[in-house]
């Protein structure tokens, strides 16, 4: 059984480019929101295997004010610059402005924005607003659910805030970046639902790209992930992203694994 | 036969312990836009915040929720729609088991009971007495494509808004198909 499962996962991950999965993507957010008045709590650990091994911990609080508007607040802690410390924070808001539902399918379109701060020194054209840079981002995301398969496309523009005190002399500096992604997810188990307590098992494959429009430098990552959902409330993710094309010198998140736990509390906000 | 009918109606009027001339006892809601059990759980939790709901029984494979209601409370089906939408989804179909007590459907298909106005789209000139299973076909109680088709057939401004002038004041008009 275990080998059958592993084989199935491998086949799904390899057959990817026309992706699979439910839409609780590991490396990107879907256009769908949490239920109104829900709270979610996440704890993410990112392990960056880039020469040495570095770790970032991201506690995250998610709030949905109504069915259309939700926000995430994140803190970033890492040992990237020696001692493990608080390096910054980020606020993300998403507004779902289109929702078309059918039987076991939906299409959603949302706009989002992010504001981030980070104490880290800057030494790359790459912009990572989840820990490495201070800056702002605006984007659009389109998500389509087709029964057990979910597909999602993302397009965003990021602008780094200039802080000369944090610039490493002689190194490239962040300015602007276009991010784009295609994500897919597939609900593998259960094949037939019996109750809420059955664990769900989802597999994901995401393609993540970034381009600096000024320099023309780009990179493209593949990011497979697996996920289990326990008691229809608790989500555990395990994912890995790696570069397959292009390069931006000194880029962040190259060869990074992600492990995450998320807990959802429905109908708690008044 | 007619005597028997009147006898039943009059008996029902005397026997009736409930204060309501019309009562929704059960509803079956098929929810669109979801497949995963986390989404179903969110929908169920949202529905359970309604005070008049007694129990919610899900069919996770068909995304159907069977709702039973508290005997002493009036059911507001618009709130059911709002709660499903709050969870991030929408109603595909909603069929309600409604118990009427000697309620007349007039020549225009309109019935009034307990201050609520029902527009029946496929019956008129009859009296309802006893349980009836009716599908609510208003906007956001069926898929948007189904609503557009119905609107084209019915050609009714009241159907488009779910509101109409009844006895001189604007009221919610529930469109039902039985």
Chain-wise SSE layout:
The complex is a heterodimer of chains A (270) and B (178).
Chain A: H1 2-14, E1 39-50, E2 52-64, E3 69-78, E4 85-102, E5 105-118, E6 135-146, E7 149-160, E8 176-189, E9 200-211, E10 218-230, E11 234-246, E12 256-265
Chain B: H1 2-15, E1 22-32, H2 37-47, E2 53-59, E3 64-69, H3 77-86, E4 90-105, E5 110-113, E6 116-120, E7 126-136, H4 144-154, H5 157-161, E8 163-166, E9 169-177
Parallel strand pairs in B: 6-9
Antiparallel strand pairs in B: 1-3, 1-4, 2-3, 4-7, 5-6, 7-9, 8-9
Helix pairs in contact in B: 2-3
Give an account of the 3D structure.
The complex is a heterodimer of chains A (270) and B (178). Chain A has 270 residues and is mainly β. Chain A has one domain (2-265): Porin (Beta Barrel), CATH 2.40.160. Chain A has one helix spanning 2-14, and strands spanning 39-50, 52-64, 69-78, 85-102, 105-118, 135-146, 149-160, 176-189, 200-211, 218-230, 234-246, 256-265. Chain A has a 12-stranded antiparallel barrel with strand order 1-2-3-4-5-6-7-8-9-10-11-12. With 178 residues, chain B is an alpha+beta fold. Chain B is 29% helix and 41% strand. Chain B contains 5 helices and 9 strands; from the N terminus they run H-E-H-E-E-H-E-E-E-E-H-H-E-E. In chain B, strands 1, 2, 3, 4, 5, 6, 7, 8 and 9 form a 9-stranded mixed sheet that branches. In chain B, helix 2 (37-47) runs antiparallel to helix 3. Chain B is globular, with a radius of gyration of 17 Å. Chain A binds chain B through residues 22, 24, 32-38, 66-67, 99-106, 145, 147-148, 187, 192-196, 198, 200, 229, 232-233, 235, 264, 266-267, and chain B through 30, 32-38, 40-43, 45-46, 49, 58, 60-61, 63, 85-90, 92, 143-144.
């Amino acid at each position: 059984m275990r080998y059958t499962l592993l084989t199935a996962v491998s086949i799904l991950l390899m057959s990817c480019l026309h992706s699979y999965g439910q839409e609780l993507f590991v490396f990107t957010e879907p256009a769908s929101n949490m239920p109104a008045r829900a709270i979610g709590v996440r704890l993410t650990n990112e392990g960056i295997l880039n020469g040495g091994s570095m770790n970032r911990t991201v506690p995250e609080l998610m709030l949905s004010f109504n069915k259309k508007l939700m926000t995430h607040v994140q803190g970033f802690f890492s040992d990237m610059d020696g001692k493990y410390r608080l390096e910054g924070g980020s606020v993300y808001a998403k507004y779902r402005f289109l929702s078309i539902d059918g039987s076991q399918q939906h299409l959603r379109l949302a706009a989002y924005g992010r504001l981030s701060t980070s104490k880290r020194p800057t030494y790359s054209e790459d912009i990572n607003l989840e820990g490495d840079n201070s800056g702002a981002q605006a984007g659009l995301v389109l998500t389509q659910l087709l029964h057990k398969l979910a597909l999602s496309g993302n397009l965003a523009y990021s602008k780094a805030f200039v802080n000369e005190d944090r610039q490493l002399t002689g190194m490239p500096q962040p300015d602007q970046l276009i991010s784009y992604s295609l994500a897919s997810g597939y609900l593998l188990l259960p094949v037939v639902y019996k109750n809420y307590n059955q664990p769900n098992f989802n597999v994901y494959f995401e393609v993540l790209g970034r381009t600096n429009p000024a320099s023309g430098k780009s990179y493209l990552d593949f990011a497979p992930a697996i996920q289990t959902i326990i008691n229809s409330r608790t989500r555990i993710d395990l994912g890995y992203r790696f570069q397959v094309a292009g390069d931006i010198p000194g880029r962040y998140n190259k060869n990074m694994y992600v492990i995450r736990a998320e807990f959802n509390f429905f109908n708690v906000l008044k | 036969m007619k005597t028997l009918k009147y006898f039943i109606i009059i008996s029902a009027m005397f026997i009736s312990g409930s204060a309501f001339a019309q009562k929704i006892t059960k509803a079956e809601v098929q929810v669109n836009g979801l497949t995963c059990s986390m989404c179903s759980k969110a929908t169920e939790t949202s529905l359970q915040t309604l005070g008049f709901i007694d129990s919610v029984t899900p069919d996770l494979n068909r995304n159907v929720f069977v709702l039973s209601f508290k005997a002493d409370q009036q059911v507001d089906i618009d709130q059911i729609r709002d709660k499903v939408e709050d969870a991030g989804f929408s109603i595909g179909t909603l069929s309600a088991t409604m118990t009427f007590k000697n309620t007349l459907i007039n020549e225009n298909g309109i019935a009034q009971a307990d201050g609520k106005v029902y527009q029946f789209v496929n019956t008129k000139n009859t009296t309802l007495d006893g349980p009836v299973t009716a599908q609510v076909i208003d906007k956001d109680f069926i898929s948007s494509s189904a609503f557009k088709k119905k609107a084209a057939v019915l050609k009714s401004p009241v159907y488009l808004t779910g509101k109409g002038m009844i006895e001189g004041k604007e009221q919610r008009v529930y469109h039902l198909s039985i």
